[in-house]
Design goal:
By secondary structure, this protein is α+β, with helices and mostly antiparallel strands. The chain contains four helices and ten strands. The strands form two sheets. Strands 2, 4, 5, 6, 8, 9 and 10 form a seven-stranded mixed beta sheet that branches. It has a three-stranded antiparallel beta sheet with strand order 1-3-7, with no helix packed on it.
């Protein structure tokens, strides 16, 4: 038997109703964010030629309503999608331009202050803005994807595609080959020192340094100076006087008899005195 619902049960919110309310709230929040981010962004020209080392870009930005502050900080995001390569290849005299597609490139962000006011100070929701891109910032001739965002990364308008036209640096991709048997190759008859003589014989090689005769000039210092031949006092040796080779007692300075020769007169005087006393 099915019981009738009470008033309390009829007033209790169902689980499905809560989910529906949350979904509606999320939809309203998303719509409000998209509405605040709505706007337009357009490039005046999708192709720009390099002038004096820079590409001058003109854009038109329009918001849904005029901002509260005239100067708005915005981000211009450039993602490289292709590059125009200039290369020297075999079979061509000049450089060949090749379009090289790129993928997964790191975007380059340029932060700028965009003015939405005129000279009188009145603020508008739209403005015309221009700026320059240089090679010193890493840009080169090629194709780019351009996006505009606010300071908090909210996109403005859709994605635009820009082509920067110019001449990139030349890359040498030629192969180096050596084929001396090829008859089409022309022999180059030239010498580092000039053209060969009329008789066809190559000139003799120059003489090597130091190969000719050497003539001494001047007077060089002796290897051993004259002071080296002089004897020192320690090296002096006293030599024996010339003679028969025999030694006479008393003549040698080092003899003990000669050292007592001074006693001879004293001994003679003593002998004379002794004889007188005995007489």
């Amino acid at each position: 038997m099915r019981l009738p619902k009470t008033d309390t049960q009829s007033r209790r919110p169902s689980f499905l109703g809560i989910l529906a309310a949350l979904a509606m709230l999320a939809f309203v929040a998303t719509f409000a964010r998209d509405a605040s981010a709505a706007g337009s962004f357009k490039l005046r020209s999708t192709e720009v030629t390099e002038v004096s080392g820079a590409w001058h870009i003109f854009v038109t930005i329009e918001l849904t309503k005029a901002p509260l502050v005239a100067h708005q900080s915005m981000k211009f995001v450039f993602t490289r999608t292709a590059v125009y390569e200039r290369a020297l290849v075999d079979g061509h005299e000049g450089p060949v331009i090749t379009r090289v597609a790129l993928a997964n490139q790191t975007p380059t962000v340029e932060g700028m202050d965009v003015d939405f006011a005129d000279a009188t100070g009145k603020i508008f929701k739209g403005t015309h803005f221009d700026f320059g891109l240089t090679r010193t910032r890493g840009y080169e001739a090629g194709e780019y994807k351009v996006e505009v965002r606010t300071a908090d990364s909210i996109p403005i308008g859709g994605t635009q595609y820009l082509t920067l036209k110019g001449d990139n640096e030349i890359i040498d991709r030629r192969a180096v080959t050596f084929n001396a048997k090829d008859k089409s190759m022309k022999k180059v008859s030239a010498y580092d020192a000039g053209a060969p003589p009329a008789d066809g014989n190559p000139p003799p090689p120059p003489p090597a340094a130091g190969a000719g005769p050497v003539t001494p000039t001047g007077t060089a210092q002796p290897f051993v100076p004259k002071e080296g031949f002089e004897k020192t006092q320690e090296e002096e040796i006293k030599t024996r006087p010339s003679g028969c080779g025999c030694s006479v007692p008393g003549t040698d300075e080092r003899s003990p008899i000669r050292s007592l020769a001074w006693l001879t007169p004293i001994a003679a005087i003593g002998l004379v005195a002794y004889r007188r006393r005995r007489n």
